[in-house]
Amino acid sequence: MEEGWRRCAVMEGLYHVDAPTVLLSLLRISHGGDIPPSLFLSLSFSLSVYSEYLDIWDVDMMRRPEELNKKQHHTELFNSDYLIVRRGQEFQVKITFNRPYNPATDKFAVEFVIGEPPQFSKGTYIPVFTAKERPSPWEGRVTDTADNTVTMGITPVADCIVGKYQMFVAVVTPVGIRRTRRDNSRDLYILFNPWVSADAVFLDDEKERQECVMTEMGIIYHGAYDDVAERDWNYGQFNYGVLDACLYIMDRSDMPIINRGDPIRVTRKASAMLNSRDDEGVLVGNWSGDYTYGVAPTSWTGSTDILLSYANSKMPVCYAQCWVYAAVFNTFLRCLGIPSRVVTNFYSAHDNDGNLKTDIILDENGRVDRGRTRDSIWNYHCWNECYMSRPDLPTGFGGWQIVDATPQETSDGMYRCGPASVKAIKHGQICFPFDAAFVFAEVNSDVVFYSRNKDGTMEPVKVNRTHIGRMVVTKTPGDVTRRDITDQYKFPEGSTEERTILEKAEEYGCQREKSNPPVADVDLVLPTLEISRGDDFELSLEFINRSTQHRTVEAYISGSVAYYTGVTSYEFLFRNPTVKIGPNQSVKESMMVEFKNYVKHLVEQANLHFIATGKVKETGQIVTTMKVITLHNPKLTVTVSDGGKVNEEMTATVEFTNPFTFSLEGVYIRMEGPGIMLPKSKYYSLIPGSSSLTWTEFFTPQRAGRSRVIASLDCSAVRQVYGQASVTIEP
C-alpha cells in the first residue's frame, strides 16, 4: 500500500488531483465547449457517485501559540506564523472533510515532504496513515472526531531530518488519489528535541534544558583570570526570521538534507559555516583594531542583526572575534533545539606546533625574544559546548561536546573545531574525533621558557605547568552568576590522575617538555590590580629570596599594550634594574605607569601585559612572572520606564558621560532586549570631553516575564562600554 502512495506522490508531483474537474475540462475540449445532454446526464451520475467519497475541505495546523502544539513542544516563544514542533513527540492537526470520516471505508494519509526530489527511501517523503494495517515511518492516529472534522496525532521519529517540511493531505477515491494543493500556510518546522529520551540531544535536567535551550539572555565572561568581566548578550533564538536564517546556513553549506537529523554532522558543519574563512560563512574575523568597513566586534549586543543580515544579503557579516563567534553559534544551536552554552577558558593556549608546549624564547640575558616567540596565550578564549550522545565513541563519552567556530586551525581541510567530547579531553583520549588534541592543548599546555644561546641552541630554563587552562567558566543555569567547570576539563593540577592523563595523551602523539629545570630560589611576584581607563597607577614588582644567601637579579620589566589573543602591539614600559636581595628577604621595585604613555596605543580590550624576567647572577637560574591587567571602562546607565505591560508602549533611556578630557569621535550606541525590544542603534559624530548624552527609545513588549535591556557604546578610542537594566513585563 505504501508503494502505491509513493508512486502516486512522485507521478503527481504532490499537487491536487481533482478528477471531476479534469473530466469536465476534457469533455468540453473534445466537444468544442458544449457537452451533449446524454454525456452530461452520465457525468452527473458519476459526479453524484464521486461526491459520496471523502473530500478535503480544510486543514488546520493548530499553529497558534496558545494552542497545545506549541506549548507541549516548548516552541510557543518563536515569533513565527508557522507550526514549529520537536521530533519524537506527538503533535496534532485538524482535517475537515465534506462529510463525517468513516474509518472502516475511508482511506487518507498525511504526507510530509522536505528537499528535492522527495524520496521515501531517504526519509524526505513520509506518508502517515491512520490504519494499523498500513504502517508508516511516523506514527499516526486519530485522536478525536467531531462532525466532519478529524483530529490526527502525528509523531515524527526521534531521528528524523530537522528542517522545514511541506504538508499535504491525500484521500483515496474511485478514480485515484485526491491531494491538497501546495499551501505555504501548511508548512511546518521540526526541530531537535532535548525533552525526549530517544533523541540524540536528550538532556535529562530540566534546569539545564531551560537554560541551554529556552534562555535568550546570556552572559559571556572575558577579561583576566583574576579580574573576570561580564558581557550581556541577547541570543534571540526566537526572534522573527532567526530560525529561517539558521536553516539557510545549512542550505548555504550544501549540507545534504539526509544528514540534517544528526547533531554530530550538523554541529561540525556549522562550526565551519559560522566563520567565513573558506566557505563564505556567517562572520568575518578581525583582530586588527581597524573596523572601518563593518561593525566592531565589541559593539554587537546580540545575534539577531548578524543572522538576519547574513540571510538577507547572502554575504558574510563584518566583524567578529571569539566571543561573537561563540554567541552566534549558541543562537544557532539553541534555535534548532540542541542544548548549548558559551564557555570561557582563561589563559587559553594557541599551540602552533601541535604539541603540549607553549614556547617563550628568552635571549641569553633572560629578556623575551618576541621575534622568535611564535606560540601565544590568549587571556581568554570562548567556545561552545553542546549536549548530545556520541554513538561513534565508546560508551561514556557522550554529553557535553566542544565546538568552536573561531577560525584558528584547519580540521579536515576547513576552519572548524569539534564536536570533541569534554569527557575525552578530561581523560586524555585525544585520538577521538573531532579535534580533541587541539582542545586538549588549549587547556593543558605547559608554558616552557627557553634560553637561546648565541650559537642558536635553546635550553629549557623554566616550565610552568599550571598557567594554561587556569579556569573554565560558564553561566549558572537559572541565575546571573558564573559557574566554574574547570573540573569537567581536567583533574586537579599536580594530582596523580592528572599525571596519568598527560602520560596517556603522550601515547597518542602529544609531545611534552620532559625536562625539569631546577626551581630558582628567587620568586618574582606582580600584584593583582583593578585599574580604570584614564588612571595613573603604581606597579610594584616584588623579588623574594627564599635562600639563606644573598642574591642579585639582573631583571627585565616590560609593559606592553596587548590584544586579548596575547599578541603585543606596543611596548610602553621597559626597565632593566639590578636588584640585590638579602637572605630570606624581599625587595620591591616600583614604577609609575602613566595613562598618557599608553592611551594612544590601546586596542579594543584595553589590556596591559606585563612580563618580568631575569637571571640570578649567583646561580645562573632564570626567573619569570607574567600579569595581564584589563583596564575597566566607564559604564552606560540604562533605565526603563515603570509599569511595563504586553503591547503597551514603554521607553528605555541610555545615559553616558565622557570621563576623558578628549573627545570621542564616531560613536555608535546599540540597544536591544529579548522579547521586548528589537535591535536599535544611534550614531554620534562627536562626544566632547566631560560632556553627557541621553538617548531615549520607545518600544512595545511582545510577551510577559522578566527580561533585560542591554546597551553598548563603541568607538575607536574606547570599546567595551556596556550597561543593562532588568525589567518585568506584566501580561
Automatic annotation (TrEMBL):
Top-rank lineage group of the source organism: Eukaryota
A Pfam family the protein falls into: Transglut_core
Gene3D superfamilies recorded: Immunoglobulins, Transglutaminase-like
InterPro entries the UniProt entry points to: Ig-like_fold, Ig_E-set, Papain-like_cys_pep_sf, Transglutaminase, Transglutaminase-like, Transglutaminase-like_sf, Transglutaminase_animal, Transglutaminase_C
Residues where Ca(2+) binds: N444, D446, E493, E498
Biological process per Gene Ontology, one example term: blood coagulation, fibrin clot formation
E.C. numbers: 2.3.2.13
Residue ranges annotated for the Transglutaminase-like domain, each copy included: 314-407
Catalytic activity field: L-glutaminyl-[protein] + L-lysyl-[protein] = [protein]-L-lysyl-N(6)-5-L-glutamyl-[protein] + NH4(+)
GO MF: metal ion binding; protein-glutamine gamma-glutamyltransferase activity
Transmembrane segment boundaries: none
SUPFAM superfamilies per UniProt: Cysteine proteinases (SSF54001), E set domains (SSF81296), Transglutaminase, two C-terminal domains (SSF49309)
Active-site residues per Swiss-Prot or TrEMBL entry: C322, H381, D404
Cofactor field: Ca(2+)
Free-text remark on how the cofactor is bound: Binds 1 Ca(2+) ion per subunit.
UniProt keyword annotations, A-Z: Acyltransferase, Calcium, Metal-binding, Transferase
Family: Belongs to the transglutaminase superfamily. Transglutaminase family.
PANTHER family: COAGULATION FACTOR XIII A CHAIN, PROTEIN-GLUTAMINE GAMMA-GLUTAMYLTRANSFERASE
Protein known as: protein-glutamine gamma-glutamyltransferase
Species annotation: Sander lucioperca
Gene: f13a1b
